[in-house]
Request: fold
Amino acid sequence: MFDDYEKKDIEVLAQQIGSTSLPPILDYFKNIEVVMDKIDEHALSIFDYDGELCKLNSSVHIPKYVFHKGAESIDYFTFKNNLSKRAMGVANPVWFFSFIFNMIIANRTWIEAFYHDESMAKVRFHSNSPILGRINRLEFAYGDGEVGEEVAVQEFLTGITNEKNSKSSKAFKINQQKSMQIESTKPFYLKVDIENYFRNIYTHQFEKIGQQLPFRQYETENSFVRRFFAFLDNYNMAINNNHTKGILQGPISSSISAEFIGLFIDTKIEEKLDEDVDYFRYVDDFTFFSTDNSKLEAQIEYFDRLLRPLELSRKGEKTVISNGFPPEKRADLAELFSKVEFLTQANKIWISQEDILGFRYYLSGLMENKNIPQIRALLTITTRYMDRAFNKAFIHNNDTRQSIYMVPMLLKLVYSLPVVADHVYRLLDILLKHSTKREAGRILQELVNNTDYVEEHFAETNVQIWHFYLLFTYLKANDKRKLLKKVLTRITKDPQGTDPLILGSIISDDFSVNYSIYRHIKNTYMMANNQNPQVSTNLQGIGYSKWWPNMLRLHEYIKRQEGKPMKTKSFYTQYRKMRKSIVGLFGTKNEPKLDEMGIYMYLL
Reply:
């Protein structure tokens, strides 16, 4: 059983199966607590559960092209501030469920103890990316009940952090204060980070560090800590196509795994840290401070030696020793509101041409200076303003608002500075949500006109995913079908890692659309397994392929369609074949097909 704090942690973890850079297309796990209870009750035969740790066993079917018993990830790219690409991925949910369960038990068994252990305070103090710290929790210790006996109140941070809303975390403000305390009056600083941290983490290192400080002192009689880190080794390898080199960036499980490596590094640094040197770390970015320049130079040498056994290395071009304050760009809200005045007018509905020109002028200056934090703040606040203002407006169908003239400049911003793409598309989503039919048509046509450009220049990126998400969400049915035909033609010639997320955006209640997607996935998957889709339909193992989101959406459609008539006899024949194939993967709630996709029956 799980207490209320653990239930909230389960919910927070389930929300973070993918990166914050994606549109809301992975929201399948609202009933995740049911699955956790089933594991705890030994009611899911696909998991071996010994009362502490659970592991996915070999009874599940996997694609023939996936090595051993891992799973195929959904792969895509996002952009860094320097416009280079960062490889990202979405984990397979069933493997992710095992991580959630084991993480909750690990937190109960030793992680929370580590974060409250005063003897570990020096090690924890250096990290600005804690695993726990979402909330402040109070515990009361009562005396013997005598008159005048005081009640002791202990306050501590707990709750697994939510990267989708990190600034609301209690640890966020504490980290800001702590960083200034560490910096203090020390005039010299050293900035250093690890080369391609996530891509270079060797998964077998998890089992090794689990047997060393700071973790081994929390070992139990049943060797839980060692076995938990061995699980992290196997898990991170399995969700990343069984690669031992690198972990999948995107899921919260990878951030937590990387933080364990970071805490191990902090422990090693603390052992040798000069009393005149202090530092803080955010994931793999380290900032050291000292009154002596030479001590920082010596720190570089030790840092290099420390990383070598972990098969990691320092990023040379990012290593800087200087004096004064480390460069740091943060959003300046006072400047933002002074430059974009319409955002301060709570009751204003209409945006004038002057407002649009002022917005563009300010945005162009921010782009020229590459002030990415300020651009993100501008887009976020504008999104909130538009949502609030349009909700209060009474708009006639023939009205055209000036806000639609923002669309071309926003798309230009995406193509010029794609690192802010998700912020731009969230603003466009709000504009489309509140627009009249006439306005929405103009915005959508702008997006349609840019489709070829996006496909050519932003293939397999979150820009491409967002672009099609908006089109497939807001286009009319006939226009969706035309666009789908174009997308399927491209996919047939040039399949990409983002295809499951793109196609998942269009699955709804249109049978012809859904059947086209089903046929494409069936043919693609079977051919990848060296089977002839013309001879039979065998989708065994597809739940552990990249196509799992599409199978989930198609199954949801089938459940909605039950008992409803089809337009034509041929449609009905096709529907029955599709239904038999998909339902056969899931089973029923009473008899879920757990070796395929039956576990999702508890979530739908």
